[in-house]
Every structure is written in C-alpha cells, then in structure tokens.
Prior knowledge:
Mean pLDDT is 76; it is low at 1-29. The chain has helices spanning 2-22, 33-45, 49-54, 58-64, 67-73; strands spanning 82-85, 89-91, 94-103, 106-118, 121-124. By secondary structure, it is an alpha+beta fold.
Amino acid sequence: xxxxxxxxxxxxxxxxxxxxxxxxxxxxxxxxxxxxxxxxxxxxxxxxxxxxxxxxxxxxxxxxxxxxxxxxxxxxxxxxxxxxxxxxxxxxxxxxxxxxxxxxxxxxxxxxxxxxxxxxxxxxxxx
Length: 127
C-alpha cells in the first residue's frame, strides 16, 4: 500500500512539472516586449541575422526585401556587448522599450525599441 501512495505522489509531481513547463512563455519571440527587445538586440549584436530577422515585423521585413539585405544593413558583430531592457510602455498592440547596450561594462547607447503584436507575438518595428 505504501508503494502505491509513493508512486501516486511521484506521478502527481511529474504531472505538475509538465503542466508548469507547458505554461511557459514559449521563448523570447513570444514573450514580453522587454524580453523580445532584449533578445533581438542580443542576436543583432552577435551577428545572428537569422534570429534577429525572425523577430522583425512583417512590414520591416517587406521593406528590407530579404534576410541578406538585413544582414548587410542592420546586424553588427560585438559578441561581448550586453543588453538591458527597461519596462515596456504598452498601448494595445504596440509597445516601446528602452534598451541599454553596454560593451566592456560601459554604456555605449540607449535605444528606444518599438514593437508591434503580430499574430499574438511581439515583433520589432524599426523606423
């Protein structure tokens, strides 16, 4: 009888863990405006044009025409840079996040990142 109770407890713990994992944010591209802005700049600063391209809004992707154009124009290569995101200002399906970019512990720049919600996912909307 005791083995059955122990097995039931273990089973309910495993089920709880699976449910909690399933309720996660779904990764940075579907998370909060802050997490998306931070992940976007982190990818762009590392020269990861594939990841940063996927985080751009459809209108920006259309304007750039293709990923190769984005790789040439918008992606840098500073893998040691760090990104800090402030609190988002959200109005409906748009948001703005202040992002600080640091290199070697020194602030290099602060950027205002505009985002738009497309299909339930926050995307970066650049001017």
